[in-house]
Amino acid sequence: MIARPVLVFLIVLNLGAALWWALHTARAPAPARADALPPLEIAKDVGNAPAVVPDNVAVTPQTSAAGLADARCVLLGAYGEARDVQRALTALRGIGLQADAVTRLNSPRGFNVLIPPLSSPEAAADVQAKLRAAGFQDQFLIRQGAQSNGIALGRFGTEAAARALLARLKAAGFQAQLSPVGASTTELWIRALHGGEQDETSLRKLASAPQAKSIACDQ
């Protein structure tokens, strides 16, 4: 009598297990959190697009002759026109040299200090006497030309020396003036820096310059 209920119980248990497996569907795994995933990287064919350099990356500049230990400087010129300077700069920079245009000012050849022409030789002689009395012995009367009846008091190679005498004369009451000898002129030159591979002759020919002068690189 006991065996029959046990048998029925086992049959019912087996039927229940079979029914559970038949009706069961696998549950999908829980999705991973988005913030736990590694960042998505998308490969992109950039072709010939220019590279972008981050702000914190130093870019090494192109080497120039200025960075050479044996750098030398040469002055090329003088040129008659600005377009000649531009052509020469293009030629020099075309072979990698550092070159710049330079304008040089040529001062007058000298400076005369004189008293302008007076009304007559007698008036000039009177002023000469006063000059000698005031201690200005170096003088002579100009007897011809545009400055006739004027009084020359000296010629100086520098403007500073001429102005020093001019100040002394004016302090003594004489109306003297300064007159440059020759006009001031400007010249167009090129200052080029090279590493010694080229000599002055080759650089002068390349730049079509009348002259080439070696100069200190700090000039």
From TrEMBL:
Full protein name: SPOR domain-containing protein
Pfam families: SPOR
Lineage, broadest ranks: Bacteria, Pseudomonadati, Pseudomonadota, Gammaproteobacteria, Lysobacterales
Domain SPOR: 105-185
